[in-house]
Amino acid sequence: MKITLIQIGKTEDKYLLEGIDKYEKRLKHYINFSTVTIPALKNTKNLNFEEQKKKEAELILKSINNTDYVILLDEKGKVFTSVQFADQLNKHMNRAVQNLVFIIGGPYGFDEKIYARANEKLSLSTMTFSHQMVRLFFIEQIYRANTILKGEPYHHE
């Protein structure tokens, strides 16, 4: 199974880039993981939030295939513990999902077209985080889930 993380706009804070790089390197030992960064929209002063989400949706939809299993990282999604999340990943692996695609939207969330395309929604917390920080938190959780599935000592419970 391949896991792809689609995100809007590049990460700019050095400390986040370092953390993301750390966990991406660690993930290479477990799974085929990649990120797709869709450039942030330019000249958005004259666009309202809904128009921005619609334009982002067009770009996101071009980045996914009809056969991809799509999970949105969304504040209204299902909340899991790390162990439950690892179990969910394992279920996708056992169902022979070819490409599991997680999507982090832009600062205003997702357009309805993206909600309609999604197979699931996942929330990392009932708190709200910046879409920049979510990238690091999520990649760490993918790494954590893989160590849980392998029975390695990274996760303590």
Describe the overall structure:
The chain has 157 residues and is α/β, with parallel strands linked by helices. The protein has a single domain (2-40, 48-149), classed as 3-Layer(aba) Sandwich (Alpha/beta knot). 42% of the residues lie in helices and 22% in strands. It is built from 5 helices and 5 strands. It has helices at 14-27, 49-62, 82-94, 112-117, 131-149, and strands spanning 2-8, 32-38, 69-79, 99-104, 120-123. Helix 3 links the parallel strand 3 (69-79) and strand 4. Helix 3 crosses helix 5. The longest helix has 19 residues, at 131-149. The protein is globular and about 50 Å long. The mean pLDDT is 94.
| Annotated CATH homologous superfamily | SPOUT methyltransferase, trefoil knot domain
Tally of separate domains? 1
Mind describing the biggest β-sheet? 5 strands, parallel
> Uncertain spans, ≥5 residues at pLDDT below 50?
none
Placed side by side, the strands forming the largest sheet appear as 2-1-4-3-5
Number of helical elements: 5
- The helical percent reads 40-55%
CATH C-level category: Alpha Beta
- What is the strand content? 15-25%
